[in-house]
Design a protein that fits this description.
The complex is a heterotrimer of chains A (284), B (187) and C (870). Chain A has 284 residues and is an alpha+beta fold. Chain A contains 10 helices and 10 strands. Chain A has a single domain, classed as Alpha-Beta Plaits (2-Layer Sandwich). Chain B has 187 residues and is α+β, with helices and mostly antiparallel strands. Chain B has 3 domains: 30 residues, no CATH class; 53 residues, ADC-like domains (N-terminal domain of TfIIb, Single Sheet), CATH 2.20.25.90; 70 residues, no CATH class. Chain B has 6 helices and 9 strands; from the N terminus they run H-H-E-E-E-H-H-E-E-H-E-E-E-H-E. Chain C starts with 8 loop residues before the first helix and ends in an 11-residue tail after the last helix. Among the domains of chain C are: 147 residues, Rossmann fold (3-Layer(aba) Sandwich); 168 residues, Barwin-like endoglucanases (Beta Barrel), CATH 2.40.40.20. The longest helix of chain C has 17 residues. Classes of the chains: A alpha+beta (284), B alpha+beta (187), C alpha/beta (870). Chains B and C meet through strand 1, strand 2, strand 3, helix 3 and helix 4 of B and helix 10, helix 13, strand 9, strand 10 and helix 16 of C. Strand 8 of chain B pairs parallel with strand 9 of chain C.
Chain lengths: 284, 187, 870
């Protein structure tokens, strides 16, 4: 497959001009609503059905048989072979209300996705649903996306050399199906739907929890003004993000790239033109 | 590649289309464009029930080319509303995974390893052994009172079996005079 | 519930969303506790004390639902003056034969005008030993709906003042379950108990209902049945039975474990909870019916059910003249449970064993004894998906490692036959709410794998063929049997002509279901058990399932989407009996037939139509008006009055006091587990006096309470499941996606216990009982909380029991530790509350393992007598 022409050459908007509509900026003029996940951790029972359902559907291999000692979490983190990861945080107090927090983490499908920005092959792609997908047939395993992700979501799998992560079940949602994890989730902790609706629902749930005396409840990844332009997969947490192993203030690692690219625009254009010509020549 | 195929080439699409950054439409591969859920065009969907615990979650079993290719929750079920736990979600691996044995294995008395055995032969050998154990453990009377039973063989299992299977098991073994018929419900 | 039944737990979360309060009682803080409003850490083995404390609160503060209690329970019923309570006898009930460890029931009966109470199962010539045999044969368990004998028309005192009326007996009995005592026994602080009492009682009454949910945490005890009885008393007092949102729900752990109880692969029952005939008192059909039938209610029709079953089994061969082949049935002489079976294997009488989807080598209590039993067999058949431990113990079992067994010296022949999966066969599962659901064949089973239906049918076909071949050695009768014909007739007369289909000759499961459902003499499928007859004109394989094939339609295969019907969802699958979803739902209406409240309406009397109606199928005689009163001489179903909501009971009432049926007491009493570091603070009686003891050198018990040596095992341990695994692991440890989620056997301990014993988080610990020692990785967690019990701190050790030596994740089996001391009603072992020691590090390997266990036994002074006293 081809290399991709550098973003600066294409000279499209790289700010949040598309707002929460990254699909529109990615060439999908007439596209469906942006779809995403709202993971309400306040009702997560830590069953890990999401982890298994994801693996069954996406044929993701087993990811190690080590006891971590981290409560009931033997998954550890998201990786090339773990696209849903349930974290367990024990907050037990001998007098008072104990909590055992559980939260199913997943790729955030950022509005400003660094993995996508850095991918030199075009393997990473924004879908018409606004989600971020790795195309296995394109990925050359360079691993740029792995280090670019501010959440540590993407990983390279040793067995096939490719980078892998949650696709938000692109094949399923393209056909009107619910992603495997959300479909399996026994308590609707993982909710799938148009991002607008999920945001509204999340605000309602947040108010409910605040009214019910849970002031620690907060949304994470829901704010379009955050460092990744808001996430397509956001969360309701019951504590600080760090408690769940989530970065408190994630920033798209490629935020400064446009300015940098402008300086090399000329060179890039020349390279791209050459690539185009040679490509046409080879393929005719 | 056909003469016009280069129009589909990503960089061409990037330069000529709306996706100047090549983050979306322009970078789609042919595979991506053809992507469909593998349960879309299956031969049939069998209605089923999760085999693990006794909640009885509904399952849809997707069959393609006489293979089960996916098992998911049945949204119609008033019990489970389409949801499954991690075990239920692993039903595909349970039923089609590497852990399944498909051949009869036989360990002879004092043997140190498994041997292969024809299923038909195995059934015949088992039938002979049931008859012999039944005879040896037969108790026509105990303490002068009629019992007409055998303690010669026993069975354990049934909680994972279908009602129809348990019915035949109990019927056959009771007729043979066996009383030591038990299952996990005791345990 | 979130741990072991996550998808069922969605309904708890729904209820919580609507304001329900969730109380979770468990020694550990689990995934269920995480979503509960109140978590009650409890000392394992003390639940009767805890729930008894709630009952005491209800009685003391008159928080019961008086109208419900008066109308639908036996609160007003008067007992004879022969009854003596635990209050009178320091912890035992009247009728205890201490020598034989058996209760006579006669003194527990109701007072009535009858000259002499019905004889029960006791014929006049039964000796104490014979009585024990009958009791051991599971008479408490058969007739699971509580059809034990009781006076149908006892004396009552509706003012509830009579000193011998049940309510007054109850008050006296539970008076000692004070908050202070509950705190001392169960480790539940008074304030916490008070909170639970208030939540439960405030949420019960005409407008509200409270539900109890339990699993094996309540059944696996030497007093397991009485645990559930305690909840039954509380729920009956509070009016929470037969009503929406009420009840006591058993969450069962296998896809069709309910079905395998209804159509029992259990020694003591025939299909539909009919007792297996016993050697004594069941000589012929008349004697059996006389002994096992009650006078009033639907169990009065036992002869209809039994004859129809015999017709289903033996078809045309079963006639009025030959007692419908009743004589073909084998007879019990006591308990023949899976544990007695192991003893029969060890003594050489039981030489063959079938394991069907079951893994006793790690999944049954005292797993070592299970394996030693299997090593004594001539042959063993294992039908499973994978090479589970029960198939390979001769190769790699723990006894091979310790040197107790040598592969080349084990005589057992082992046949491993691969089983078909649920996707590869037709059939029905009965789920935990008594609902049958059909699963359809998706694909044919591959290779040699076959359904158990195939296996049973073809095995039966072959055996019948062999027995029928005259002159062959196989058909020669054993000693003492007059002729081969007499010996083999029951097998040869069996109806066994099921049609087969497909390339594998798979029997048609629907035809079997049709037989279970039953048919009339012309083959028409029956639609209700009320159609069954005792004259041989109907056949029915399981009377409570009658109707599942009504109209010739497989009702279990119905799948009308839940969203397209009412909340009861009666058109999805089929629930026994008669597709009723809530049992005894007549009690959801008041005595006049009106719902107790609109909010809690379920079924009601429609005077205009002259019948019961509602959201659910009424569990009552459809056209019997609330004001119906039976004639003095009415019997059977006719004797059920319009307010006898509990139609299966001999007196039509929910039993606060059980005048018969339970072999270990008419009321629950707290007894310490077989093995406990504590003395019983409630009574002088330490243990359940009639618990079942199995004395065997491989089943030694530990000293308890104040006995010397008890301190060698100072900790309490309990077993449980994890969400990520299933039972003994045969369907989870072998799967990569589940194995990786919980990849090691571990024990859970508190930081305090870890400090006391030097246990390191994620390190290894060895857990020891008088049976064995096992090793586990250590999870030190605050979720395990030391409790104050009996004036001191007690630590508890949590053990998930899914592991064994085979599969992708391997580990020792918790069942190595468990002794065989059984609940006397149902012969279930006490996994859920034991005493143990725990020490840092891995267990010894090889012969040193048994040396360690012997060393502990010696240190604790354990002999064959230890723990066996009544």
């Amino acid at each position: 497959m081809s290399t991709r022409v550098a973003p600066a050459f294409a000279a499209g908007p790289t700010d949040a001009a598309g707002g929460l509509d990254p699909a529109a900026r990615s060439g999908y003029a007439d596209h469906p609503p942006r779809m995403g996940f709202f993971t309400d951790t306040s009702v997560c029972i830590g069953c890990k059905a999401c982890e298994v359902a994801c693996k069954e559907w996406n044929k993701v291999p087993e990811d190690g048989l080590e006891l971590t000692g981290m409560s009931y979490d033997n998954t550890g983190s998201l990786s090339a072979s773990t696209w849903r990861h349930v974290a367990f945080i024990e907050q037990i107090v001998r007098a008072g209300d104990s909590r055992w927090l559980m939260s199913s983490d997943v790729c955030k499908h950022c509005t400003e996705a660094a993995c996508l920005d850095v991918c030199p092959t075009g393997a990473l792609m924004r879908s018409e649903f606004g989600t971020v997908v790795i195309q296995d047939d394109v990925c050359n395993g360079c691993g740029y996306c792995v280090s670019a992700c501010p959440f540590g979501v993407v990983g390279r799998r040793e067995t096939d050399g490719g980078a892998h992560k949650c696709t938000l079940c692109y094949d399923r949602i393209g056909d009107g199906l619910t992603p495997a994890c959300a479909k399996a989730c026994p308590t609707e902790s993982i909710q799938f739907g148009p991002l607008d609706e999920l945001r509204e629902r999340a605000q309602g749930r947040l108010r409910e929890l605040h009214d019910a005396g849970t002031p620690q409840a907060r949304l994470y990844g829901e704010d379009p003004a955050d460092g990744v332009g808001g996430a397509g997969a956001f969360f309701l947490l019951l504590d600080e993000p760090e408690v769940y192993g989530l970065p408190p203030d994630p920033v798209v690692t490629t935020r400064d790239l446009p300015r940098m690219w402008r300086h090399v625009a000329t060179a890039a254009a020349a390279l791209a033109a050459a690539a185009l010509l040679s490509g046409l020549g080879q393929r005719s | 590649m056909s003469d016009r195929a280069w129009i589909g080439w990503p960089v061409y699409r990037q330069l000529t289309g709306d996706d100047k950054l090549a983050r979306g439409k322009a970078t789609r591969s042919a595979v991506t464009d053809r992507l469909e859920p593998r349960i879309k065009n299956v031969d049939r969907v069998a209605k089923s029930v999760c085999p693990y615990c006794a909640v009885g979650c509904g399952q849809n079993v997707y069959v393609s080319n006489e293979k089960v290719i996916q098992i998911e929750g049945d949204p119609d079920s008033p019990v489970s509303r389409g949801r499954l736990c991690p075990k239920g979600s692993a039903s595909l691996q349970l039923t089609t995974g590497d852990a399944r044995e498909y051949k009869v294995k036989y360990r002879r008395a004092y043997g140190t390893d498994w041997e292969d055995l024809d299923l038909d032969k195995a059934m015949d050998m088992i039938a002979d052994r049931v008859i012999e154990s039944r005879r040896r453990g037969w108790q026509q009377e105990v303490d002068g009172k009629k019992t007409r039973r055998t303690l010669g063989f026993a069975s354990l299992g049934g909680a994972t079996l279908d009602n129809e299977e348990n019915y035949l098991l109990k019927k056959l073994f009771t007729a043979l005079g066996a009383v030591q018929v038990e299952n996990q419900a005791r345990i | 519930m979130a741990e072991a039944h996550p998808v069922g737990f969605q309904w708890v979360m729904e209820a919580k969303k609507r304001g329900a309060k969730i109380i979770h009682v468990d020694p550990r803080f689990t995934r269920t506790s995480a979503h509960a409003d109140v978590h009650v850490p409890i000392r394992a083995g003390a639940d009767i004390a805890f729930v008894g404390g709630i009952i005491n609160y209800v009685l003391t503060n008159e928080k019961y639902f008086r109208d419900y209690m008066l109308a639908y329970t036996n609160a007003a019923t008067i007992l004879t003056d022969e009854y003596a309570d635990t209050e009178d006898l320091d912890g035992v009930f009247s009728g205890l034969d201490r020598e034989r460890r058996v209760y006579e029931w006669d003194s527990w009966r109701y007072e009535s005008d009858a000259v002499r109470p019905a004889a029960g199962e006791r014929s006049p010539d039964l000796t104490g030993a014979q009585l024990l045999q009958v009791r051991r044969s599971g008479r408490g368990e058969a007739q699971g709906s509580g059809g034990a004998k009781a006076e149908p028309r006892p004396h009552t005192d509706p003012t509830l003042q009579h000193p011998r009326c049940v309510l007054q007996i109850l008050k006296r009995h539970f008076a000692r379950y004070t908050p202070q005592v509950v705190a001392e026994v169960a480790g539940v602080p008074e304030q916490l108990l008070r909170q639970v009492c208030e939540l439960v009682t405030e949420n019960s009454g005409p407008d509200r209902t409270t539900a109890f949910v339990y699993s094996l945490g309540w059944t696996q005890h030497t007093v397991g049945v009485q645990y559930i009885r305690t909840a039954a008393i509380l729920q009956a007092l509070l009016g929470n039975m037969g009503r929406p949102g009420g009840g006591i729900m058993a969450l069962r752990g296998h896809a069709s474990i309910q079905g395998s109880t209804d159509i029992p692969t259990l020694f003591d029952m025939l299909p539909g909870y009919l007792p297996m005939p016993h050697q004594y008192g069941n000589d012929n059909l008349d004697a059996y019916i006389a002994a096992e039938t009650v006078e009033k209610g639907f169990w009065a029709n036992t002869r209809d059910y039994m004859v129809s079953l015999l017709k289903a089994y033996w078809g045309d061969a079963a006639t009025q003249d030959n007692d419908f082949c009743y004589g073909y049935l084998p007879r019990l002489t006591g308990s023949h449970s899976t544990y007695e079976t192991v003893l029969e294997q060890l003594n050489g009488r039981c030489t063959g064993y079938f394991l069907l989807g079951q893994n006793p080598a790690v999944g049954s209590a005292n797993a070592r004894m299970q394996r030693l039993g299997m090593a004594s067999l001539d042959w063993l058949v294992v039908r499973d998906f994978s090479l589970i431990e029960s198939a390979t113990w001769w190769q790699n079992g723990p006894e091979i490692e310790t040197g107790e067994l040598r592969t080349e010296e084990i005589k057992t022949e082992v046949f491993f036959l691969p089983a078909a999966a649920h996707t590869e066969k037709d059939g029905s599962f009965t789920n935990t709410q008594r609902m049958l659901q059909w699963h359809h064949t998706a694909v044919e089973p591959a290779g040699d794998s076959r359904s158990d239906l195939w296996f049973m049918f073809h095995l039966g076909r072959r055996i019948r063929q062999k027995l029928a071949e005259a002159g062959r050695g196989a058909s020669a009768p054993p000693e003492g049997v007059a002729s081969a014909d007499e010996w083999n007739r029951p097998v040869l007369d069996l109806t066994w002509d099921y049609p087969v289909r497909g390339p594998l000759d798979e029997p048609a499961a629907e035809v079997v279901l049709a037989e279970i459902n039953g048919w009339s003499s012309d083959g028409t499928p029956l639609s209700s058990y009320t159609q069954l007859n005792a004259d041989g004109s109907t056949a029915c394989g399981c009377w409570i399932y009658c109707g599942v094939y009504a109209g010739g339609v497989n009702q279990a295969a119905r799948r009308k989407p839940g969203t397209e019907q009412n909340w009861v969802a009666n058109e999805w699958g089929w629930a026994w009996p008669a597709n009723r979803r809530v049992l005894y739902n007549r009690a959801s209406a008041d005595p006049d037939g009106r719902p107790w409240s609109q909010r809690k309406a379920l079924v009601w009397w429609d005077a205009g139509q002259g019948k019961w109606t509602g959201h659910d199928v009424p569990d009552f005689i459809a056209d019997r008006p609330p004001d119906y009163r039976p004639a003095e001489d009415a019997t059977g179903v006719e004797a059920i009055s319009g307010t006898d909501a509990f139609i299966m009971q001999a007196d039509g009432k929910a039993w606060l006091f059980a005048p018969a049926g339970l072999v270990d007491g008419p009321l629950p009493a707290h007894y310490e587990p077989q093995e406990s570091p504590f003395v019983n603070l409630l009574y002088g009686q330490q243990h359940n006096p009639v618990r079942e003891i199995i004395t065997h050198r491989d089943n030694r018990y530990q000293p308890s309470g104040a006995e010397p040596g008890s301190d060698v095992f100072p900790y309490v341990t309990t077993t449980y499941r994890l969400t990520e695994h299933h039972t003994a692991g045969g369907m989870s440890r072998f799967l990569p996606y589940l194995a990786e989620l919980q990849p090691a056997f571990f024990c859970e301990v508190s930081p305090e216990l870890a400090a006391e014993r030097g246990l390191e988080h994620a390190g290894w610990a060895t857990i020891v009982t008088a049976r064995s020692a096992i090793e586990a990785r250590v999870l030190v967690t605050e979720r395990m909380r030391p409790l104050q019990v009996g004036g001191r701190v007690v630590h508890q050790v949590g053990l998930p029991w899914h592991w064994g030596p085979n599969g992708l994740t391997t580990g020792d089996a918790a069942n190595e530790l468990v002794h065989l001391s059984l609940d006397p009603n149902v012969h279930i072992q006490e996994d859920k509350a034991m005493a143990c020691d725990i020490r840092a590090g891995r267990r010894p390997r090889g012969p040193a393992l048994r040396d360690l266990v012997r060393e502990y036994q010696q240190r604790a002074g354990i002999t064959a007598q230890t723990g066996t006293e009544e």
